[in-house]
Structures are given as structure tokens and as C-alpha cells.
What does this fold into?
Amino acid sequence: MVSDPVIVRPGGHTPPVSIRLQDRPAEERPAERTAALDQVFRIEHLSAWYGTAQALRDITLDFPRNRVTAIIGPSGCGKSTLIRCLNRMNDLIPSFRQEGRILYHGDDVCGPGSDAVALRRHIGMVFQKPNPFPKSIFDNVAFGPRVNGYSGDLKALVEGALRRAALWDEVKDKLGTSGLALSGGQQQRLCIARALAVEPDALLMDEPCSALDPIATYRIEELITSLAVDYSIVIVTHNMQQASRVSDYTTFLLSGEERIGELVEFGPTRDLFTTPKDERTESYITGRFG
Amino acid sequence: MTASTGNPARTRTGRPSGGPALARRRRATERAIAGLLLAATGVSVLTTVGIVLVLVFETFEFFREVSLWEFFTGTVWAPLFSPRHFGVLPLVGGTLLVAAIAIIVAMPLGLIIAIYLAEYAGQRTRSTVKPFLEILAGIPTVVFGFFALTFVTPNLIQPLIPGTNVFNALSAGIVVGLMVLPMVATISEDAMAAVPRALREAAHGLGATKLEVALRVVVPAALSGIIASFILAMSRAVGETMAVAIAGGSTPVLTIDPTQSIQTMTGYIAQVSLGDTPQNSLEFKTIFAVGMTLFVMTLVLNIVSQMFVRRYRNVYQ
It folds into this structure.
């Protein structure tokens, strides 16, 4: 998987996205992945409020399966609110309220039969600031499997998760040391490994590189690109270059005078960045505001 | 004060006052105020130093007549009757027995309350429950003593364990546990509230339930603060006087049977200092030796808990 040639990025002048989409041999793609318009999340008329302040208005959007979808937009446009709706993380905020529907593989995530805890076991999340538990590296990664009652070989699972997060070689000799002793970039990869250890099917990343230096950012981006083969990834970023580097699709949100986030444009990343349909998108990506 | 002396001068002369005499007066006032404040602060420092000096001096006098060996290894405490024995262990044992029962009551209950308040209760519940904890902490200890003697022993303990002495370590320990409960609950809750929300979100994001988040993430992350609350509660239980003097009895025996009458270090000191033991007698000096032992015990406990508190503050701030 790691040696998959499509992940090697040629210097960065061509969007790696298009290479991956077009050059990946058909036989490497499972049938369900090639099915047209196959989406992991479908959002229908989503509006959200914190107390009386509205944060999102009438968002309708599909997130494609096994692709990287970036959510971009200026600060305060509701990017984080939107991504946190997907795994019901906003349930933890008492004043939060939402309307509309979010379907995860066709099931309403807030429907009567759905359970936020079970949902989050299928959807991993990586946060803005690295937030490892004050436990050992091993226990950080093993936390999810343990609370999920994993009964197999925990050591192998932890190693697998750390390998997929490209952290194994750096920590294999010190699994017993505290996760807090790692550098910021390593901590964030530890958090990614921790999320992967529950074997999720989607991965939500809320500005995962905003607290990291350029080299650590580069490694995380590389990692995201390699993970997109197996996972559906949604990434919030305020960095448009990052969105263009790592994502297959891009969503542009914008909030107007009332500070309520609305969907401006959604499309394949290359189209959105080269031939935006909406003039606000064009203004934003050319740096005229935001 | 300087303003009131300055203003009339200004109105009389019609221009800002500021002669050298006034400036001198102001400086003198400032110095006097600073001296007054220093004196007030000095009261607390001097009191502490004075008490420690008296304790050390009298304890030294005591140990010129009784050997350290007898004091710390003897198992009979009978300084007021002959033959006299000065083994402090029965008093230390009684104190630790009561404190241990108190901790057994306060630790789980306080931790559960803290977890509920920090992780489960809404803002409204929290602001309703917390004043009750503060009231519980403010109830005079003598009330707890009579509560133990007149309610806990006859209505709770004696029906369950027939043959329990009217004065017993169990009832004293239970009420001391209730007394220190607010301390355990509030300090532990503060420690849990200091755990960053990001850690809770990380655990929720991995599919942990609320209980798993509380027990596997928040409690371990707040552990040093929680331990500090236990140690402080222990220290308070060791130093508690009134309730144990009333409910625990005044029989210094070395026992671990909580249904028996015991005597604690504080209980003994209260008994002798209120009684008619002549001052400067060896019997009287025993209370300083016992007091010194008690002081060292609580001091060590407080220092240890301070170390824990400092550690958890450093981690997240």
C-alpha cells in the first residue's frame, strides 16, 4: 500500500489528485469504489445553531466515498461546525441544535435507531491541536480498541495502526513512554494512528496541520494522500494550497454579514481551483479576501 | 486619607496644594500604613513561630523524663494513673482507625460526587448541589459529634452490630468521613474540570461512552489532584477533635475493632487541657509531646498533598 506508485508525488507542480484519480489501474479499485456518485455522507438542508446564533444555513452536499474532500473557507464560516456534525461531536455542546438530515451510508445519523457512540466507532476524528492522552504511546493507540472490546492481538493492531500513520519506525523502541513526550508532528500522527486503530471507515480531520511546522505538515499531507486509498477522508483546512495538494473534491463555505455559513461551491478540486463557477470562489482562491 | 487632607487645602488656596510639609505628612502616613499592614501580617507569622517554639520546647522537656523509645514503642497509654505508661501507639492507632474509616466513607462517595458534577450534571444541577456541599462543610463539628452519638450509633450501627459500645470508632469515623466529604468532592471536581476538553473529545471521537470517558480519561488525567484531595481529607480527619472526642470515647486502647471505644491524639489533648491536671507536671507535658506528633503527621500529609496539587497544575496550564 505504501509502495503504491500513485502516492509518490512528482515534485508538487501537478496536482497529485488528478494523477491518483486517473492513473490508478482499474483492477486496483474495488467495485464499490468505482460506482459512480457513491457517497459516504449525504447532507440534506443542514442548518445549525449554537444557542440563538446560527452557524450554518441550508447546506446540501455529498461527500464521495474513498476520496479526500476538503472544506475550505475563511475563519468563522462554519467549517468546523459542519465536520463536527458528521460524527455528532456537537452533541457534547449543550446549546447546540441542528435541522436537516445527515446520512452516513444511507442511514440518518440522528435518526431514532442511531447511536452517537456506535457512529463514532466507525468515523475517526483528528483534531486541530494534537491531543494525545497523558498515557503511553501504546495505550494511546490501544484506547479505542479497548473501549470497543477488541479481543484480538492488541500488539499487532497497535503496530499496524502506527505503521499506517507512518510513525512506527520512530516510536517502535519507546512504546511505553508518554505520548506527550513526542514532538507536535509526531503527536498528530499518533492521534491519526489512534483514530485508525478502531478501524474506521471514514476519517474526519479538523485543521490537522494548523498547529504544525511545514515539515510536519508535509508528512501529514503525505499520510493523508496514502490513507485515501482505504478511507473516506473529510479535511477542514484554512490553507488553500493544502486543499489543492491533498484533496480530490473541495467544498467552499462562506459566511456573509450575519456570520452564518453557507455552501458556495462544491466540485472536483482541480475544477474548483482552475475554473470556479462562482465569482466568490474565484475571489477567495485568488486571495482577494479571507 | 491623603486625599482628604489634600482637598480642603486646595479649596482654601484655590491652587493644587503641595508644600513640603504636606508631602512630609503624606510620606509619614504611608509609612504608618505600611507598618500597620506589616504588623497585621506579622501576627500570623509570629503565632506560627510561637506555637512551634512552645511545642518544641515543651516536647524537649517531656523527653528529658520519658525516653523516645518508650514513647514511640510502648503500647499502653496511662499517663494519669500509676503505674504510669507513656506509649503513644494507642492514641496514634485510635487516630488512624478513625481517619481510615473516614477515608473509606469519603473517598468513594466524594469521587462519585466529583465525577457526577464534573461529567454528568448540567449547569443548573451543579449550581444547586454545590451550595449543599458548602453547607455540609460549614456545619460545626460538635454537631457532627452529637449526630454520631445520638443518631448514627443507636439507629444505624447498634441494630446492625449488636454489642457496639456507645462510644465507638466507627460512628466517629463515619461522621468525620461526612465532614471531609465536601473537601474530597470539590478538590477532585476542580482537578477534573482542569482536564482539557480536547481529551474528552478525543475519547468521544473514538467511540467511548460517557462513563468510559470519565473513568478512563478524565479520572486518570486528574489523578494527582484527586490523590491530593484524599491526602488533605486524611490530614483533616487526623486533626479533627470535637466529633471524635464526643463519639469515639476516651479509652486509649490499641485496637482495630471499630465497635470499641478508643481515644485519639486530639481527644486526649482536649481531655487533659480541659481537666485539672497541674501545669508543668509531666502529665501536663504529655499533651505537647502528643501535639508535636500530631503536628508532624498533618504537616507531612499537607506537604505531600501540596506536591500532588502542584504536579497536576503544571500539566495542563
